[in-house]
Amino acid sequence: MTSLGLAWRTARRYRARTLLAVAGVAIIGALLFDMLLLSRGLLASFADLLDSEGFDVRVIASEGLPAMRVPIPGSADLADRIRGMPSVRDVALIRMERARVRRGADRPRVVTLVGRTQSGVGPWTVVRGASLSYGPVGSARPSGERDSASLPSERGDCPVVIGRNLATAFALEPGSSLDVTATPAGIASALPSVACRVVGLVDFGFAGVDEYAVATTMDAFEAIVAEPSHGEADLILVASRAESGGGAAAARAIAGLRPDLRVYSNEDVVAQFNRNGFAYFRQISFVLSSLTMSFAFLLVATLLTVSINQRLGEIAALRALGIGRRRIAAMLLWESALLVGAGALLALPLGGVLALLLDHILRQMPGLPERLHFFVFEPRALVIHVVLFVITAAAAAAYPVWLTSRLPIAATLRREVVG
Amino acid sequence: MQWACHNPAMLTFVAALACAIALDAAPDVLVSRQLAARAHLTVGDTVTLAADANGARARTFRVAGVYEPTPDPMRFTAERIEGRLHLPDLIALTADPHDPASAESVNTINMTLAPGIDTRRFIADLASQAPGVTGWPTARSRDDDPFVVLDRFHLAISVVTVVGSTAFLLALMVIRAEERRDTIAILRMVGISRRSLLTSVAVEGLVTAIAGAIFGVALAFTTEGLVNRIFQTRYDTALVFVRVTPALAWRAVAVAAPLGIAAGLAASWTLLRRNILSLFRR
Asked: Is the pLDDT of residue A103 over 80?
């Protein structure tokens, strides 16, 4: 009989303890797998969220997220200069303002209103209806030019796309109408409402779980906030050309145009997030991964050692029958591998379910974008999981193997069997 | 409560130590411990401050003291390169000479309400009397507190760990019960009832679990300082990351005790329910 066969028979003979040990390894392994998913999950999700917009460079006026808006002076001119750069494929100007939305007699809702110039890609996914229409997509046009000859309020044209939260709150569908009133933070205002038309229901990438968000064209936005057509943007998004060096090269070139502004490539944003916002989760992931591995090692090693101590007579008998030290050692290694391997295998689906639960808990953090996740599967997590468990299985079997390899056959048989 | 539109004022040091000669006329500045270490500042040094990176309208200040920034869990990864000035000095340094109103503006007003005043009502009254300002309480509600979410996350991880540990504990107890098979058979043979044996197993499980919990709490107490020191050094902060409170210690014992008893009873019951002959393998 092979060593694997002997190990399998032992596992079957002591069924209860085997099942309990496998269950323990599976649960601890699930936690380890989740910590591996967490170790880079938020970063991967954040990077994916940034990339999903189709832009890889961001231009802002100031660092951080101040409560007051910090506009980019001369943003329309700057956008035109950026658009003229050979390394740039697309440019979009973004403005954001707080607003109040009312529909009929329903209670008004405070929303984040986003105004955006034309660009090929939007930071949202259309769920129902259509996206904002600017004419032929991709047609380059100076930012100073407007989306139409007259202001939307004059034409009664204010197309908006809304998030699903708001659609549910007001029972809105594409084609519905709603009144939008800008309520800029930090200043007293009595701006009139603008009647807008819902053209689509969308998933906003950066909107929070509980946030109501509305996006419209820059023309309509300027009509709502009652500002002239050359308002200053809060954010300029730039899509670079890969063949010209990508986002990092474009960011450097744009920073050279306006040294007073902050220019970040997506990689810069992710790196900054990794240093600051993500530090806690990286640390807890590392600490818990280390603890779970130590825990799994100690417990499997203890189980195997106690189990071996109970079976010393049996092992001495096997040795007396002529089974060599090497086969006994291999049998113990297989026992450890069966316990740890089965547990590690079960840990994967269990870890997946647990990750959903833990992700659900963490995503209740206030202000978190709806599409951001803490636990993200990456193949490297699976590889590390397997490698760590192979090491654990080998390490846990080391002491029992050493114990049995030094076992005096005659004395042990006398003590265990005759005694 | 806090009445604010912006972050607290913070200046950039464009030039650190100007010279070692203290000027009597120089106003005072307090510098954070981190800044003092970074710029090699000590009390009595003179520094030049300016509100912009070009050093325009720079002024000289005397370092009057070094302070430890109040630990802020929301900013523990941020480098606390900070200084504190008297408000008139700050306004003189930062006010726009072309905008007279800037000399009379502040970013934030902190206030403590008199006892019995409702914060929400006060904020609503303020908003109606001073349009354009935003007020909010400094105390977070449970709905918008990220630490409440982290607390739930930690609790969930603890539950998973306890479940995993229980499975291992059960496996060990099963092995231990098997080891005692002959002893139990003899005890049953001499007339000791199942109830007495179960009680003894329960007491043993209780003692073991409590001893384990006390060991765990003692380990946590002794490593608490080490863990805090590692993270405080890593992030250069005085924030306390781990604190083993009596309530936590009691909770650990309260969870461990019933689990230990249950594991002991469950493992032993597999033997105790059998008749005496089968215990003797007959």
From this structure: yes
Q: What is the pLDDT of residues B47-86, one digit of tens each?
A: 999 887 778 788 999 999 999 998 887 777 778 889 999 9
Helix intervals (H) in A243-378: 246-257, 266-275, 279-310, 312-320, 325-362
Hey, are the CB atoms on B178 and A366 less than 8 Å from each other? Answer: no
Are B203 and B249 part of one and the same domain?
yes
Which chain A residue has its CA at the smallest distance from B75's CA?
A276
Domain of residue B81: give its range: 7-108
Q: Inter-chain contact B77–A357, Cβ cutoff 8 Å? A: no
What average pLDDT is seen over chain A?
83
Residue B149: list chain A partners with CB under 8 A.
361-362, 364-365
Could you tell me which chain A residue has the CA closest to the CA of B143?
A366
The Cα A269–Cα A238 span in angstroms is 14
Tell me: the pLDDT tens digits for B134-185?
788 887 766 667 888 888 898 999 898 888 888 888 888 888 787 788 888 8
Task: Write the Ramachandran bin of B113: left for phi over 0, alpha for psi from -120 to 50, otherwise beta.
Answer: beta
> Distance between CA atoms of B200 and B186, rounded to whole angstroms?
15
ipTM comes to: 0.74
Q: Do B132 and A187 touch (CB under 8 A)?
A: yes
CB pair distance less than 8 Å for A28 and B164:
yes
In chain A, where are the structural domains located?
3-49+277-418, 62-260
CA-to-CA distance for B256 and B249, rounded, in angstroms? 11
Q: In the prediction, which pLDDT does A353 show?
A: 95
Q: Is the dihedral of CA A326, A331, A334, A336 positive or negative?
A: negative
3-class SS at A128?
strand
| CB pair distance less than 8 Å for A17 and B134 | no
- Phi, psi (degrees; rounded to nearest 5) at B99: -130, 95
CB-nearest partner of A16 from B156, B164, B174: B174
Cβ-nearest to A20 among B76, B171, B235: B171
State both tokens at A17: 């303890």
Judge whether B225 lies within some domain. Answer: yes
Task: For chain B, give the percent of residues with pLDDT over 90.
Answer: 21
| Residues of chain A above pLDDT 90, percent | 15
Same domain, B267 and B149: yes
Q: What is the pLDDT of residue B29?
A: 95
Confidence category of residue A377, pLDDT binned at 50, 70, 90: very high
A392 token code pair? 């654990």
How many residues make up chain B in this entry? 282
- What pLDDT shows up at residue A146? 44
Q: Which tens digits make up the pLDDT trace of A5-26?
A: 888 888 888 888 888 889 888 9
Judge: B167–A186 Cβ closer than 8 Å, yes or no.
no
DSSP letter at B132 equals T
State whether B191 and B246 are in the same domain: yes
Element (H, E) at A78: helix A75-83
Q: In degrees, to the nearest 5, what angle opens at C-alpha A292 toward C-alphas A286 and A297?
A: 125
CB contacts < 8 A (A, B) = 98
Residue A121 has what pLDDT?
Answer: 59
**A-chain residue closest to B7, CA distance:** A66
Q: B157 and B264 share a domain? A: yes
Of B7, B78, B145, the CB nearest to A66: B7
Q: Is the pLDDT of residue A417 over 80?
A: no
Look at A21 and B171 and tell me if their CB atoms are within 8 Å.
Answer: yes
